[in-house]
Specification:
This protein is of the alpha+beta class and 413 residues long. Helices cover 17% and strands 32% of the residues. Strand 20 and strand 21 form a beta hairpin.
Length: 413
């Protein structure tokens, strides 16, 4: 039996980078960038107006205000999208629209709200500073500047930047393909009536959703009976996946065949059993870059193992630097007994009070009670050697949930 830290290292050492593909911007949100993107021109490429108003020479309006407006002669109009080839001389102004290029000779814009125009004369009730309401060329990005780098998880604003650079496509990491296989004679498919002794196959759907959430493409292969021939055929059908997640059949029961099947089909088993609770009987194997996780059958155990091992592996394959669940220190508001010989991860809710994060266990810590994980905001860590997290004590905790964030380090070293 190995430690969580050893298991994490074993998993990550087997990860190979996902291949690279080129996709259109419409398909790039949430993908991981696999190239350097440098600006080939300034953004904006020309000085332009922040406001609808009048392009002027600031020197012509020194001292202008509501009581003593400055008057200038309007010599033309520049709309957004036009070449802006007018020139502003002394005593002159050009009517200008938002985004339109600043004409030669002008160095400021007076917004239309501070003007009164009559024919070719405009009265301006404001003395602008030089460059006021002017967006200079290159204000956003300079030509040659690194805009986005490899390993960037592309967000909507990033796609806007790429579009502003005129890039219709971008190179990204291919999403790992994850196959999810549940084992057990007791499993019934969704939509089918339960027979005596059966439960619905919930693990596969939870794990597939978790894999999608971290950037993979997941397929629920289905469920398979606890029979060696059926299991061997099911595992043989997974060769097209980058990562295979099976649940159940990895402990020491009479019908726990998964470890043996992994050995029979030539997988290199890296470990079995980790000193943790929940999730102790996890097994991990690899073959030619494919990763196989034999996860426990209990629903909480399988998802906790996903947080600890599968999610970091998927994020590492995608080229992300922050692969681990983010951790924080929490204060327990009530005590809970823990397994002395194992690293126990206690499901807790979290609330902030006075700059502290207060954690309360979500109820029973049975690995079969999925609702306790559904309610949880964190997994409070009780390291080996401790038999409780006492009320008022502090503990490191892994933050869970879609907005918890990720870190480049884990707290188990």
């Amino acid at each position: 039996m190995i430690s969580i830290a050893e298991a994490i290292e074993s998993v990550l050492s087997a990860v190979v980078p996902a291949p690279i593909e080129e996709v259109g911007l419409a398909a790039a949100r949430g993908r991981v960038l696999a190239e350097e993107v440098r600006a080939t021109f300034d953004i904006p490429p020309f000085a332009n107006s922040q406001m609808d108003g009048f392009a002027v020479r600031a020197a012509d309006l020194v001292g202008a205000d509501a009581d003593r407006p400055g008057t200038l002669r309007v010599v033309g109009t520049i709309a957004a999208g036009s070449a802006g080839d007018l020139r502003v001389g002394p005593g002159e102004a050009v009517r200008i629209m938002t985004g339109a290029p600043i004409p030669a000779g002008a160095d400021a814009v007076v917004k239309v709200e501070d003007s009164t125009a009559e024919g070719a004369i405009v009265a301006l009730r404001h003395a602008p500073r030089p460059e006021e309401f002017v967006r200079p060329a290159g204000e956003d990005v300079r030509s040659g500047e690194l805009v986005l780098g490899p390993g960037r998880l592309l967000r909507p604003a990033d796609l806007g930047l790429l579009a502003s650079l005129g890039k219709p496509t971008v190179k990204v990491r291919v999403r790992p393909r994850v196959g999810v296989l549940a084992t057990g004679d007791e499993l019934a498919s969704l939509g089918q009536p339960l027979r005596p002794g059966q439960i619905y196959n919930s693990n596969a759907w939870a794990l597939a959703a978790a894999a999608e959430e971290v950037g993979a493409d997941a397929v629920v292969i289905g469920s398979v009976r606890d029979e060696p021939d059926a299991l061997r055929a099911a595992f043989a059908s997974t060769r097209g996946f980058d990562v295979v997640l099976s649940t159940g059949g990895v402990s020491v029961g009479d019908f726990d065949y998964v470890k043996q099947i992994m050995d029979d089909i030539g997988l290199e088993r890296r470990f079995w059993q980790v000193a943790q609770k929940p999730g102790k009987p996890i097994t991990f194997a690899a073959r030619e870059g494919q990763l196989y996780f034999g996860l426990p059958g209990n629903p909480v155990s399988s998802l906790v193992c996903f947080v600890l091992y599968v999610a970091p592996a998927l994020r590492r394959a995608l080229g992300l630097a922050e692969v681990f669940a983010r951790s924080a220190q929490v204060e327990l508001v009530e005590g809970v007994r823990t397994a002395r010989g194992l690293c126990e991860l206690v499901r807790c809710t979290v609330r902030e009070q006075g700059g502290r994060l207060l954690a309360a266990p979500t109820g029973t810590q049975s690995s079969g009670v999925l609702r306790s994980l559904s309610l949880a905001d964190c997994l409070a860590i009780s390291p080996p050697g401790r038999d409780q997290l006492a009320a008022g004590s502090t503990a490191d905790a892994l933050l869970v949930g879609p907005h918890a964030g990720f870190s480049a380090r884990h707290p188990f070293a």
